[in-house]
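Materials and Methods. Structural model of 4-diphosphocytidyl-2-C-methyl-D-erythritol kinase. The 309-residue sequence of 4-diphosphocytidyl-2-C-methyl-D-erythritol kinase from Bordetella ansorpii was retrieved and submitted for structure prediction as follows.
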Amino acid sequence: MTLYDVPAPAKINLFLHVVGRRAGDGYHLLQTVFRFVDLCDTLHFDLRADGQITRAYDLPGVPPEQDLTVRAARALQQATGTRAGAQIGLEKRIPQGGGLGGGSSDAATTLIALNRLWNTGLSRAELMQLALPLGADVPVFVFGQSAFAEGVGEQLSAVTLPPAAYVLAQPDASVPTVEIFRAPDLTRDSSSIRIADFLADPTSAFGRNDLEPAVFRRYPRIEESAGWLKSRLKVQLQDRTCVNVRMSGSGACLYAEFSSLQQAVLAEKEITATMRVAGKTTSPAHPEFRLIKASAGLVEHPLRYWIAR
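The predicted structure was written out as tokens:
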């Protein structure tokens, strides 16, 4: 049995506030809204009868025991006692080190898909319990909807967001999340908000990303890229609207929000016409990006209904 072409969507943080630290372990307490977008990794799963979990791909610098997809599969095995195994294939499109949750999404898709392939029958709540030890962002991908998140990211409440599309722009940089959360200059005392505060203005213009100042100080290329993007978009829009360029998660990926995919596609074309993408042509006065892509915001995770209850 096989499950092929199984999507693992990226996420963006519409805002991200650090409101404190948890007593005991010092984990950072956050408030954020997660939204899925249609930039996806693709996974493939082949059933193995011998109980082995193997990879049909290579992630440079990531041995199997550290790979979140392998860890997710083994966590599901251990929780259910199944004797089934799987060979996992992965096609990466979500850039690593971008704050788009690619590894977390791959892990969640692995839990959801293998729960189906192995017929282990875990509920959404049970899969979310397995997801949290894998990473703070993993549960929201199992949750399956746009969500207001609190705590360390595990306290999730569904929110309804208006249609929107985004231009995703990954500068030629990767940001280690741990480094930023350890930064002594990171803001850790933002005032808490209520869901109702966000729902009064449910767009990326709400709030801010508290991680941006610490990231920009350590990675000036990202700050320069954000400024350049904003200036290019203002030219394209002829100052008809305020352009908000924000970083997702701990970066390095930046995004700008638009009311339609058509607008985002036009913005992508404008940007790529005047810059270099991953070493291709043009003036060194323009920043270099690993990714420029117009991407639609999703209403829900594409695998939301793969979980029966």
